C-alpha cells in the first residue's frame, strides 16, 4: 500500500485560497474583457458558437491535442482540419498556409506546457485573411512571450484553464482582446456534487503533503478513495471506449464556472506561483540533464515562462507513467486520447509526441527536495522499464 507523500503535477487546494484574498487583482484575468466558464473546453465552445459561422466553415486545430478542444469546436457547429506540429512542439506555419481555403474561418494555436509559440507571423496572416485567431493557453496561465506580453493577449481570443495552475474544482476563461468582438455568451449555471467531492479530495491531497498523524490519515483516506475511483473508471471504460473522456458531466461544454471555484480564486500572488514553478523547473532539469539532456524539449527556461510541468521524452511512456504514479509521483500526460477524426498516419509527429512525452511535476506547492525525489523516482522507473 502506497503511503508516500503525493507529488502531483497539478496543485491541491491550499486552505489559504479560501481564507485570504490576493492583495492585487489577477494581472491577466482580473482586468480586460473576460468571461469565466466551467472549463477551457466550455470557453472554446462559447467562442466558436458566438462567431455564428456559415455552414461548412472550419477551424484549423493542431494535430497534437487532447481531444476535447476538437470536440468543443464540433459541438459548436463548426468543422475542423488539422495542421502539423513539429517534433520540437512548434507549429508548422507552412502547413497552416497550405490548409487555408474558402471554408477556413479561424485557427487555434496551443502554447504547450507553458512555452510560447512564435505567433507574430501567424497573427499577421490571420489579419490578412480575415481569420479569427485563438490562443489556447490551457497550459500557459501566467506565461509571457519573448516581448514580455502575457500569452493569451495577442490573438483575438485567449483561452485558459486555470485549474491546471491554481486549484479550482473547475475553471476556464475566455479573454477577448479586440474591442469589436463581443464577449461570448455566459455558461449555464449548474450544481454537480462532483464539484464538492473534488474539492474535499483536493483538501485531503494537500493535507497528505504534510507530516505526522493527520497527513498519514489523509493518505489512508485518499488510497481508499482511489481504489473505488479506479474500479468505477475501469467499468466506464470497459471495451476500451474513450467517449467518457469527452463527456465528463462536471466539465460540460455549456457550463458556467462553479460558485465554489470563484471562492477558491484567492491565495498566493502570481509572482509567487511563477517564481516557484521556475525554480522547480530549473532544479529538476539540472538533475535530469546528465542522463537525459537530449530528451528535454525545453532544456532552457526562457525568461517569462511559467511552466505547467517539465516535459520529457521517455521510452514506453505509459509504463513509466504507471510506475511513477505507483511511487507517488503523478505526472501530466497530454494527448493520450486524440480525437477520432484525426488520421494518425497523416501526422507521425503528433503520434510520437502523444505517445512519448510525460510531464513531470514542478507546481508551486513543491520544493527543491521534492524535485530531487521526482528525479530519483523517474530514473529508477526508467531503469526498470528499459531492462524489463
Automatic annotation (TrEMBL):
It comes from the Bacteria. Residues 1-26 are annotated as: Disordered. InterPro entries: DegT/StrS_aminotransferase, PyrdxlP-dep_Trfase, PyrdxlP-dep_Trfase_major, PyrdxlP-dep_Trfase_small. GO terms for molecular function: transaminase activity. Keywords: Aminotransferase, Pyridoxal phosphate, Transferase. The keyword Transferase applies. Signal peptide: none annotated. The keyword Transferase applies. PANTHER family: DTDP-4-AMINO-4,6-DIDEOXYGALACTOSE TRANSAMINASE, TRANSAMINASE. Belongs to the DegT/DnrJ/EryC1 family. This is UDP-4-amino-4-deoxy-L-arabinose-oxoglutarate aminotransferase.
Amino acid at each position: 500500500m502506497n503511503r508516500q507523500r503525493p507529488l502531483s503535477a497539478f496543485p491541491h487546494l491550499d486552505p489559504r485560497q479560501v481564507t485570504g484574498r490576493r492583495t492585487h487583482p489577477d494581472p491577466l484575468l482580473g482586468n480586460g474583457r473576460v468571461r469565466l466558464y466551467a472549463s477551457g473546453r466550455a470557453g472554446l465552445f462559447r467562442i466558436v458558437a458566438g462567431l455564428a459561422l456559415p455552414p461548412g466553415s472550419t477551424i484549423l486545430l493542431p494535430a497534437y491535442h487532447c481531444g476535447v478542444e476538437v470536440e468543443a469546436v464540433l459541438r459548436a457547429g463548426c468543422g475542423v482540419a488539422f495542421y502539423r506540429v513539429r517534433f520540437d512542439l512548434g507549429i508548422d506555419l507552412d502547413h497552416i498556409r497550405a490548409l487555408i481555403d474558402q471554408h477556413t474561418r479561424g485557427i487555434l494555436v496551443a502554447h504547450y506546457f507553458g512555452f510560447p509559440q512564435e505567433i507574430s507571423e501567424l497573427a499577421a496572416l490571420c489579419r490578412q485573411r480575415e481569420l479569427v485567431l485563438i490562443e489556447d493557453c490551457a497550459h500557459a496561465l501566467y506565461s509571457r512571450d519573448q516581448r514580455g506580453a502575457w500569452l493569451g493577449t495577442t490573438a483575438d481570443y485567449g483561452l485558459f484553464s486555470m485549474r491546471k495552475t491554481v486549484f479550482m474544482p473547475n475553471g476556464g476563461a475566455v479573454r477577448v482582446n479586440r474591442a469589436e468582438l463581443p464577449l461570448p455568451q455566459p455558461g449555464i449555471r449548474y450544481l454537480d456534487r462532483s464539484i464538492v467531492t473534488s474539492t474535499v479530495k483536493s483538501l485531503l491531497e494537500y493535507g497528505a503533503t504534510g507530516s505526522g498523524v493527520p497527513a498519514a490519515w489523509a493518505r489512508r483516506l485518499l488510497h481508499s478513495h482511489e481504489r473505488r475511483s479506479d474500479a468505477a473508471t475501469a467499468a466506464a471504460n470497459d471495451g476500451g471506449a474513450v467517449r467518457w473522456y469527452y463527456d465528463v458531466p462536471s466539465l460540460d461544454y455549456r457550463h458556467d464556472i462553479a460558485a465554489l471555484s470563484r471562492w477558491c480564486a484567492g491565495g498566493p500572488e502570481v509572482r509567487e506561483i511563477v517564481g516557484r514553478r521556475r525554480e522547480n523547473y530549473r532544479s529538476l532539469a539540472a538533475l535530469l540533464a546528465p542522463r537525459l539532456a537530449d530528451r528535454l524539449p525545453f532544456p532552457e527556461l526562457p525568461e517569462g515562462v511559467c511552466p505547467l510541468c517539465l516535459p520529457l521524452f521517455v521510452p514506453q511512456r505509459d509504463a513509466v507513467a504507471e510506475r511513477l504514479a505507483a511511487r507517488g509521483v503523478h505526472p501530466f500526460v497530454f494527448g493520450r486520447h486524440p480525437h477520432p477524426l484525426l488520421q494518425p498516419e497523416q501526422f507521425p509527429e503528433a503520434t510520437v509526441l502523444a505517445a512519448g512525452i510525460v510531464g513531470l511535476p514542478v507546481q508551486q506547492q513543491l520544493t527543491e527536495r521534492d524535485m530531487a525525489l521526482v528525479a530519483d523516482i523517474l530514473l529508477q522507473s526508467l531503469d526498470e522499464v528499459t531492462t524489463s
